[in-house]
C-alpha cells in the first residue's frame, strides 16, 4: 500500500471493494481499546456495517454483525467486547444514554452508526469515520477530536503501513 504517512491526525482512504472496507475495519480493530468510541457517519449503504464487521473480526467477538436498526445496540461478547449501536431511528442522544452508553464505554469498544444524530452525548474525544460513495467505491475520512482518538489514528496508520493487514483495493487518498 502506498504511504501517505500524514502527520495531520487525519487519514483519508479509498476502498474499492467490500473486502477492502472490511480490512480497514480489521486494522481499526487492532488499534482500539476498551473505552474507545468510533462514530460512523455517512448515508444509507455507505458501508458503515461492513466496516464494523471487520472491526468485530479483529476483536474476535461472537455473533453476527448486522445493522442493529431495530434495536439500539447489540453487545458482542469476546476478549475485547464490542457494542455495535445504531442511532438511525433514535429521537435524541438521550435514548443512547438510557440504553447504557456509559456502561458500554466501561467494558467495550463502542461503534455507533449514524453518530452525527447523537453527537451531543458522545465523548468529546472520539474517532469519526465518515464514509461516502466515490468513484464506484468508498471514500473514508477518519479523524480524531481529542488526544485519545489521535493515538488511535497513529496506531491505525502504523497497522496500515507496516502491519500485515491490507488489501490491494484499500489505498491512502487525499
Ligand atoms: N467499497 C465498498 N465498501 C463497503 N461497501 C461496499 C463497497 N462497495 C460496495 N459496497 C456495498 O455497499 C453496501 C454497504 O452496506 P452497509 O450495510 O455496510 O451500509 P451502511 O452504511 O451500514 O448502511 P445503513 O445506514 O443502512 O446501516 C453493501 O451492499 C456493500 O456490498
Ligand atoms: Mg448499517
What does this structure look like?
This protein has 174 residues and is α/β, with parallel strands linked by helices. It has a single domain, classed as 3-Layer(aba) Sandwich (Rossmann fold). Helix content is 31%, strand content 25%. The chain has helices spanning 18-29, 48-59, 93-99, 101-107, 147-162; strands at residues 10-15, 37-41, 73-76, 82-86, 109-113, 127-134, 137-144, 170-172. Helix 1 (18-29) crosses helix 2 (48-59). The longest helix is centred in the C-terminal third of the chain and has 16 residues, at 147-162. The structure holds adenosine-5'-triphosphate and magnesium ion. The site of magnesium ion has 4 residues, from helix 2.
Indicate the topology.
Blueprint: E1 10-15, H1 18-29, E2 37-41, H2 48-59, E3 73-76, E4 82-86, H3 93-99, H4 101-107, E5 109-113, E6 127-134, E7 137-144, H5 147-162, E8 170-172
Parallel strand pairs: 2-5, 2-6, 4-5
Antiparallel strand pairs: 1-7, 1-8, 3-4, 6-7
Helix pairs in contact: 1-2
The chain binds adenosine-5'-triphosphate and magnesium ion.
Magnesium ion binds next to helix 2.
Amino acid at each position: 500500500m502506498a504511504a501517505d504517512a500524514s502527520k495531520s491526525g487525519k487519514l483519508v482512504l479509498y476502498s474499492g471493494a467490500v473486502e477492502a472496507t472490511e480490512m480497514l475495519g480489521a486494522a481499526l480493530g487492532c488499534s482500539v481499546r476498551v473505552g474507545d468510541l468510533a462514530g460512523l457517519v455517512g448515508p444509507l449503504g455507505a458501508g458503515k456495517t461492513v466496516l464494523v464487521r471487520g472491526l468485530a473480526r479483529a476483536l474476535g467477538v461472537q455473533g453476527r454483525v448486522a445493522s442493529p436498526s431495530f434495536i439500539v445496540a447489540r453487545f458482542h461478547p469476546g476478549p475485547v467486547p464490542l457494542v455495535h449501536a445504531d442511532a438511525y431511528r433514535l429521537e435524541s442522544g438521550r435514548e443512547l444514554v438510557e440504553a447504557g452508553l456509559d456502561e458500554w464505554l466501561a467494558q467495550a469498544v463502542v461503534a455507533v452508526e449514524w453518530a452525527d444524530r447523537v453527537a451531543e452525548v458522545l465523548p468529546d474525544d472520539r474517532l469519526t469515520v465518515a464514509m461516502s460513495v466515490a468513484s464506484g467505491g468508498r471514500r473514508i475520512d477518519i479523524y480524531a477530536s481529542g488526544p485519545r482518538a489521535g493515538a488511535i489514528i497513529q496506531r491505525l496508520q502504523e497497522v496500515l503501513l507496516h502491519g500485515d493487514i491490507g488489501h490491494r483495493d484499500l489505498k491512502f487518498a487525499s
